[in-house]
Amino acid sequence: MRDVGAVRGSGVVRLTKVRSWLSAPRSLRATRAGWCFMGIIFGVGFAALNTGNNLLYLVLALMLSFLVLSGILSETSLRGIQIERSLPREVFAGHPNRVVLSIRNTLRRNASFAITIEDQIDSSNGFEVAGRVFALCIPAQSRVAGSYLFEPKLRGDCHFSGFRVSTRFPFGLFVKSRLLDCAETGIVYPCLSRVAIQSDRSSQRSESDRGTTLSPDGDEIAGVRDFVTGDSRRRIHWRSTLRAGRLLVGEGEAISHRELEVHLDWPSQSHASVVEERIERAASEIVTHLDAGIRVGLITPTVYYRSGSGLAHRADLLTFLARLDAEPEAQSPA
After folding, report:
1. In terms of Cα–Cα distance, which of 326, 297, 114 is closest to 205?
2. Residue 240 φ then ψ, to 5°
3. In contact, 91 and 158? CB cutoff 8 Å
4. Which of 246, 253, 254 shows the shortest CA–CA distance to 228?
5. For strand 174-189 and strand 156-167, is the pairing parallel, antiparallel, or unpaired?
6. Nearest 10 degrees: CA dihedral of 262, 263, 264, 266?
7. Strands (E) located in 17-170
8. Would 312 be classed as within a structural domain?
9. Which of 28-42, 152-166, 179-193, 209-223 has the lowest mean pLDDT?
10. Are 290 and 241 in contact (CB under 8 A)?
């Protein structure tokens, strides 16, 4: 069995190291205002050399000192920056996922101003920007938090390479940047769609009830769980909610004892879009029924997951679907 994610991950690490060795410690790019300012400098310098006017030489020296001061202050803003990335517990393709960045200024006396952070991910075309965070001021020896919405297009392993930290401080004439290595691999689960909860045996997917034949909401409360988006407010268990300080939903005996097995398969030589559609459908049914308190299993041509519940079981199923290849014979459990 092949571990494609591990092989690609090791290659990404080597590519990141080579890139860090070959890249310059800083990059500098003039803005539109910077190009205009440098044009004025050349104009003043040309006029000073041709006329010998001392006032023009003084203006030229003052403008050149602005360039030097800009370089010193921008370097001070970038020097002490450290960044930590916090990925959400679950990242789904095609949905906005909030990524939190913790930005720290390690300098003892100097604050950092106008810091722009671009979080970069590896792609087939090189590097892409996953999101941007802007911090107006980071005081010395302090930490600020920022976030951006990350919306991946494809499922599978997502390799974050690092950050590009840049600033236009103090005059906006140049954009000075530096690269910070922060390699991290996240898993992107398949895109979710709205599906109905299976309530009878006539479904294409097998379902077995291990309890009384009550209605889906249950006539008796067997337990409570956290409220999730899509739950009916009529199912909120107010007594437990007031006691816990957060919204809790009551689960009926019928739902809490039910099991569902999701069957995933596709004909040979199927188009990639058909395979992705079936994988997304399976992931949607798994998430929907687990959120409803139903024990869920997964059956594929090569892998069988027994019915279960809980965050660990949910992560196992979604991780397997996220790394599933199009060819059934190449599959193995995550």
Report:
1. 297
2. -70, -30
3. yes
4. 246
5. antiparallel
6. -150
7. 27-30, 81-86, 91-92, 97-105, 112-123, 126-138, 142-150, 156-167
8. yes
9. 209-223
10. no
CATH number of the domain enclosing 81 = 2.60.40.10
Mean pLDDT, rounded, for 73-83: 92
pTM over 0.90? The answer is no
Write down the pLDDT at residue 6: 45
pLDDT at 201: 40
* Cα separation values, 60 from 31, 36, 52, 69, 320, Å: 20, 14, 12, 14, 65
221 in the same domain as 107: no
Please indicate, yes or no, whether residues 223 and 177 belong to a single structural domain of this protein: no
Residue 24 backbone zone (phi > 0: left; psi -120 to 50: alpha; other: beta): beta
Question: Strand pairing partners for 105?
Answer: 81, 142
- For the chain, give the percent of residues with pLDDT over 70: 78
pLDDT digit string, tens, across residues 284-320: 999 988 888 888 999 988 889 998 888 899 999 999 9
Please tell me the distance from the alpha carbon of residue 333 to that of residue 217, in angstroms, as a whole number.
33
Residue (of 130, 121, 118, 127) closest to 164 by Cα position: 118
Whether pLDDT at 132 is above 90: yes
CB proximity list for 162: less than 8 A, separation 6 or greater: 16, 120, 179, 180, 181, 182, 183
Q: CB of 255 within 8 A of CB of 225?
A: no
Residues 6+ apart with CB under 8 A from 7: none
Average pLDDT over residues 154-165: 92
Provide the domain count of the chain: 2
State mean pLDDT over 233-248: 78
Question: 292 with 284: CB under 8 angstroms?
Answer: no
Which pair of tokens denotes residue 119? 């979080």
